[in-house]
Amino acid sequence: MTFREPVDLAALNAGSRNTLIEHLGIVFTDAGDDWLRATMPVDARTRQPYGLLHGGASVVLAETLGSSAGNLCVDMRSQICVGLEINANHLRAATQGLVTGTARAVHVGRSTQVWDIVIENPAGKRVCVSRLTLAVVARSDG
């Protein structure tokens, strides 16, 4: 099991209020022992001028999923995970509906984590694949 405790989807969604996550309509929908899933609408908030899902919106979904999953693996009273590097390959256009992203652990270490995120359209076809590296750092509430 990768996550320290069972995932509270309601708490994750509540923590997204008044953030970019909420603004883009990202909603955490499901989780397993080592994966986290969320959806994002393809609409006026997430499209580029040509009517296609904006690649940057896909990257926001990917980093949201990977960072959230990473933080579920650490004791957040003393540590947090922050993005160190992300890459994304945009494989297929999406023009409407919901895209679904799933983050899966590749490596969960003491100082770094690596997550693979796959974003699919409603037909289950890959729209984007992304890899996120997180740094595990001491929490500083200052």
CATH superfamily: Hotdog Thioesterase
Structural class based on helices, strands and sheet pairing? alpha+beta
Order of helices and strands: HHEEHEEEE
Count of distinct structural domains = 1
The main sheet comes to:
6 strands, antiparallel
CATH-derived architecture: Roll
Strand percentage: 35-45%
Neighbour order of strands in the largest sheet: 1-2-4-5-6-3
Query: What is the β-strand count?
Result: 6
Domain Thioesterase: 50-128
Protein name: Thioesterase
Pfam family, one: 4HBT
GO molecular function, one term: 1,4-dihydroxy-2-naphthoyl-CoA thioesterase activity
Structure description:
The protein is of the alpha+beta class and 142 residues long. The protein has one domain (9-138): Hotdog Thioesterase (Thiol Ester Dehydrase, Chain A, Roll). It is 20% helix and 40% strand. It has three helices and six strands; from the N terminus they run H-H-E-E-H-E-E-E-E. Strands 1-2-4-5-6-3 form a six-stranded antiparallel β-sheet. The chain is globular, with a radius of gyration of 15 Å. The termini are far apart. The model has no long low-confidence stretch (mean pLDDT 97). Keywords: Hydrolase. It comes from Xanthomonas melonis.
